[in-house]
Amino acid sequence: MTFGTKLSTLRKQNNYTQEQLASIMGVSRQAISKWESDTAYPETEKLIRMSELFGCSLDYLLKEELESPETTQEKQNNSDDWMASRRKKFFQYERKSEKMLWGMPLWHIGKNAKGILAVGLKARGVLAIGLQAKGVISLGLLPIGILSIGLFSLGLLSAGIFALGLLSAGCFCAGIIAAGAISIGVLSFGAIAIGDFSVGALSIGKYVAIGDNARAAIALGDSRAAGTIYEKTGSLSGQDIANIKQLIDTNVPSYLGWAKELIKEWLL
After folding, report:
1. Residue 207 and residue 255: Cα distance in Å, rounded?
2. With contact defined as beta carbons under 8 Å apart, do 141 and 149 qualify?
3. What percent of the chain has pLDDT over 70?
4. Full-prediction pTM beyond 0.70?
5. Other Cβ atoms closer than 10 A to 128
6. Is 111 in contact with 92 (CB distance < 8 Å)?
């Protein structure tokens, strides 16, 4: 079996088109066609890349008398570094769409993926999924995007165990508006809430705090309240609410108007 026949067989077994294999190898589609027709042969570095990509030996690719790559595989099974070679092949797995949009493939799966939909260890795209993901919508261990969801997430809208964003939600979160077990923000909601305006079981605020245990300039607590301007424990009467709204208007800076209006609505 010639080298060209073996290459064609391996390519088809791994579901690559000539264009996709050419992109991975960094050559033209015509070069792949010439290799498969045995009218030209690749350089040594290309042969090494093929053996890694297809999980076969150089001997199998170059020696016509070797009809099957299984002999090489059996040797790998008995070697100490067999698992390492399998992991290496896994991380070299790559597929991408031939269709393009905005200069990127519609989808790309690989170690370093870049596409409209990107899936990989490092992924960049409109929708990115990976260990490190960057995109308009990103999902992963370390996602960054307009909407990001993951263990450590950063974005305009972020959700995760640790979340940082304009609007963030998670176990530990920080943002302009933050909601979580422990939250820090201009407007924060959580079991432990810290911010300019905070609502939670334990709420600590600069201007207003509402919760079971509240501490702020204006503190409203179910069981305990400590306020430097105003404090109230227990339920609020209509007159209390009117007084509190007036104090908020008087003591909160105008640039936080959006937040104080939300808190005033919360009091209704």
Report:
1. 13
2. no
3. 90
4. no
5. 30
6. yes
Residue type, 85: S
Q: Which of 134, 10, 142, 5 is nearest to 70 (CA)?
A: 10
Nearest C-alpha neighbor of 99 from the set 117, 111, 113, 112: 117
* Contact predicate 189/199, CB 8 Å: yes
The DSSP-derived string for the chain is: --HHHHHHHHHHHTT--HHHHHHHHTS-HHHHHHHHTTSS---HHHHHHHHHHHT--HHHHH-TT---THHHHHHHHTSTTHHHHHHHHHHH--EE-S-EETTEESEEESSEEEEEEEEEEEEEEEEEEEEEEEEEEEEEEEEEEEEEEEEEEEEEEEEEEEEEEEEEEEEEEEEEEEEEEEEEEEEEEEEEEEEEEEEEEEEEEEEEEEEEEEEEEEEEEEEEEEEEEEEEES---HHHHHHHHHHHHHHS-GGGHHHHHHHHHHT-
Tokens coding 175: 């943002």
Mean pLDDT of 4-27: 89
pLDDT in the model for residue 61: 84
Unique residue bearing structure tokens 């890349």: 49
Q: Report the DSSP pairing between strands 112-233 and 107-109.
A: parallel
Distance between CA atoms of residues 90 and 233, nearest Å? 61
Q: Can you give the length of the chain in residues? A: 268
Written as six digits, the tokens of 121 are: 């260890």
For residues 107 and 192, give the distance between their C-alpha atoms in angstroms, rounded to a whole number: 42
Question: Average pLDDT over the chain, rounded to whole?
Answer: 85
pLDDT for 71 equals 45
